[in-house]
Amino acid sequence: SHKHKKNGNPNETKNAPESEVEKEMRLERSSSVHSDMTKAEECINVTKEVESLQQNVKRKIQMLNEAISNLHSALEELDETQPSGFIYFFICIRISVRIKHTLYTYAYGPSEQLDEIKQEVDEAKKLVKEKDGMLAKLKRSADETMRTLEEKEKELEEREKGLNEEVDDITKQNKDLKDRRELLLRECDDVRKQKEHWQQLVEEQKQRFEIFRKQQEELDKRDQEVLGLHRSITEERLKLQEEKKRFLKERHKWEKEKNKQAKYDSGSIQDLAAQQKAMTKPVPSGKLRLKSNNSQPYENLYMMGASLKDARAMAANAVFTANSHDDNASEYAESEYADTIVSDAVTDLESLNSISDDDEEEEEDDKPDGSDHKNKLQRMQLPVNDYE
């Protein structure tokens, strides 16, 4: 039982998980110990009975020794009284028989119980032999159990060493797992922070995308508005081109009619002089723009094919000469209003000529090569006031 306790202590201290083999060994050990305990109890009971029988035999032996001592004392008395040999021998035999009888009667009771006592002694001897055999068997079984227990103890020690090594490995693995767990927790924190940062970036990108989408919608609206304006401008331009074509046709017809009338109606010299004087007179402020636009020298100069700079210089010189003939026109000569009027007229003329050039290029693409010369002549002879 003490060794069983020793063998059971490591499992209790280490709290290691028990396998099925260890459970079976424990059950076998408990059953063997129980059987050994029962056998030991039987042996103890037999030894107690043997000890009681030995005590009874010792008592009887003591009684026999007392009887023998009494016999020796009686023999000594006989030797002193009758020293003859035969009588002594006979007396000794008689005395020995009596002593035996007295001893048997004194020690074992009457002669009838002698056989029973012998039988009991024989049975006691048999029981002692059997008990000795049982004790020998018990010793052998105890030795065998001790050997098996020692072997099992060695196996348990080896298993204990293996379990200790496994426990050490498990502790190392636990430490490694704890370190890995800490690393994984740190990585999880880093990943969570990165995820939050990415979510912020995604939200910022969404906001930027919304702003960009709104801007794109505004740009699309503006593009639609610009396209609408462009369409309206193209429509207006087409309308103006059509009106210009119609005007050019009417102008061509009017020039033909004017040339026909000029052939038949030459006019008087006085009317021409009056027109010349009217052209040299100072112009009031309200009608200065119309007079400058209807001025005949500027018209004739442009119709003759001069450049715009020459036309502008001639117009300014004409205004200066007209103002120098009239004293009331000194204010107009000193002021810059006349130059502004001339510059406005020139810019209007340039813009109209640019429009006419574009339209005529389109017409030239449509018309054959024979009509280019006529169109150039019409463009050279067209005055400013006709455009207005």
Automatic annotation (TrEMBL):
Biased composition regions of type Basic and acidic residues, renumbered to the chain: 15-36
Keywords: Coiled coil
Amino acid composition bias (Acidic residues), ranges on this chain: 356-367
Region annotation Disordered: where it falls in the sequence: 1-36, 273-293, 348-388
UniProt keyword Coiled coil present: yes
Residue ranges the record marks as coiled coil: 50-81, 114-257
Protein name listed in UniProt: Erythrocyte binding protein
Gene source species: Reticulomyxa filosa
Lineage of the organism: Eukaryota, Sar, Rhizaria, Retaria, Foraminifera
